[in-house]
From TrEMBL:
This is histidine kinase. Its EC number is 2.7.13.3. Residues 512-735 form the Histidine kinase domain. Coiled coil: none annotated. The keyword Nucleotidyltransferase does not apply. It catalyses: ATP + protein L-histidine = ADP + protein N-phospho-L-histidine. GO terms for cellular component: plasma membrane. It comes from Tengunoibacter tsumagoiensis.
Amino acid sequence: MQPRKKRKSLLKDERIAALNHIGAALLSEHNEQQLLHMIAQTAVDLIGARFAAFSLRPINEQGELLVPSEGNMFHLAEVIGVTDEQRELFSRMPLGGEGLLAPIFRYGVPVRVADVSSLIVQRATAESSLEFEQLKGSAQSSAFAYAHGKISSEDLQSLGVPPGHPGIRSFLGAPLLDHAKQVRGGLLLGHPDPNRFQAEDEALLVGLASHAAVALDNVRLYQAMHARVQELDAIFHSITDGVTLVDPHCRIVRENTQAQRLRHQLEASPQGTSSLDVLLYGPARQALLGQAQQDRLVSLVNENHEPLEYRVTSSTLYQQLSPGDPTSKKQSIMGAVIIWHDETETRRMLRERHVYAETEARRSLLQHILDELPTSVYLVHGYDARLVLSNHAAKTLWGASWSQGQSMESFLQENRIQIFRTDGRLLPQEQLATLQAVRQSKSIYQHQEIIRHADGSSLPVLVNAIALDARKTPLNLPAASHGERDPVALVVHQDVSALKEAEYLKDDFIGIAAHELRTPLAALQGFIELFQLQLTEQQNVILTAGQQESLQNVDQATRRLVDLTNDLLDVTRLQAGRLELRQEAMDLVSLVKRVVRRYQMIEGRHELVLLNQAPFLIVFMDVMRIEQVLTNLISNAIKYSPDGGQICISLEEVSTTKQALLSIQDQGIGIPVSQQGRIFSRFTRADNAQANGIYGTGLGLYLSREFIERHGGSIWFQSSENKGTTFFVALPLIAHAFDEEADDSNEAQIIS
């Protein structure tokens, strides 16, 4: 008997030592799943069980139980000694306080059964669900009696094991109790043989379950603390102010992201050492001496001589005294915390916000002023004239809302708006004043257009499109693809309906007056020619010099009146849209030669030079109107060159555009720059021409432009005051000169 007792004593000591060792190991484990596995495996190894299961009740993040201990509310957390299929089955199987588990899960007492098979209540004897519920009630009653010490474990009733569960005969289970003695779960052991677990095994399992409960609480407490530390760390680094902690030796212990950024920024600057001493280490030394500072403003200057402003707060960190310790009479300093904030950016943002508020107020005032204007005003940018802003009058003028950022072409198409010339012809997109301003970066003044809305109504307008310098226009507009700023134009539309009505009345009056003057002027001119003819035939009648001069003056004045009457009638036809062109294919070269020779016969003070680089240029034209244009341009060159000189007339073919190009160059008085934009308008004459006493009606260039453009051509000029003017006329060709015949045909004719 003595050796047997000795062996049992040694086994007990080994178990106690193993229990103490596992207890220390459990307290150091922070992974819950590994902890549960270690507990279950330790129970199997120490007690000699074949199976071990760990069941737990669900809890919330604070570790509070979520469900009562009654019912199938436990879940399997870990299992030892089963197959993978059985583990998968048990993980989906809820556990509850029924049968042999009721004392453990409901009442928190351990259960040890020598042979489970002797306690099983056969479910087959229950012929109905009601009878089975009665068996469950009987089992629960026996569990209650066992938990209160009224019966032994041999009197408990078992409801058997679920399908797929490994067979067991010996059973041992202990509850996991928290500090409030609430059941958190259970540690369950089993063996296929009976009588495998003894009283000392039960005591060992109860002790192990107690260690497990404490270890689980520690793990969850550690996890909660770890989560809280991460939250605090995230909060610490998200603080917009720089926060730095230093130890008693003024060494940085910890700093948040903003403090690290500010420190690195200052270290990289030329004044890094001195700046850090003023902002960080100086306040830290003062705080370590117990001299805290609150919101101290520190001003620095960077290498670019830009002011920098920081606000610094330093506090002393004291070591917490032990309560009731008589030796701790004075708090010891354990470090300092410095909070520093770069107010430079904040103040800059405040200034920018103030500037933005002022800008918005001014923009609002400008928009209010623009909306009160009776004329349409809008601002566009980009090659396609996208809208920036507009006033209320613009919406009324267009009869539609132009969306911000929408191109002009898209707006016109979307709202079926068309723009016409004053003579009723459709104005091409590229000739719109707005598009000319943004595409050619030039200002267009006093441009007449007619807006036709979708409902058919028309509105005559006077357009001024002013091209603005994008570099001097602070509109925050996007840069163009090539990196330059988009062109910007300010466009003003003035409704000239009333003026047009008055102009129509004036044109009617001019047309009537010109028509009524035509008949008497024709009669007067006929009488003068008849009188001159009679004087020539009657040689005995001799006029004095004064009489001859008077007769010539009357003849010249009559011719001027006839020319003015014809011009006025042409203007009236143009304005009324009744001008008809009789176009036919003709040679422009021969026409120009004929007109030049006619002027040579009557002009002696000027030298006319014709430079012709093509044998012929066939143009589809109204010969009378093109001859009228040539006459106007050549007579102007002669008239506005009062000192005489050379007049060069050039004619050539432009193969790239398939056009005939005519130029007439004089060395006369030129056209002032300020008046060049209006020189093709009706009744417009340059100031220097009037100052020199040069006669003119101001209709020739207007009629010339209308005639040329109705032929599909274009007319323009280059002029410098007191240096001369060159007019250019381009007309489309319908046949080209033969290059091989033109090699030796460059012709220069001087007619003097």
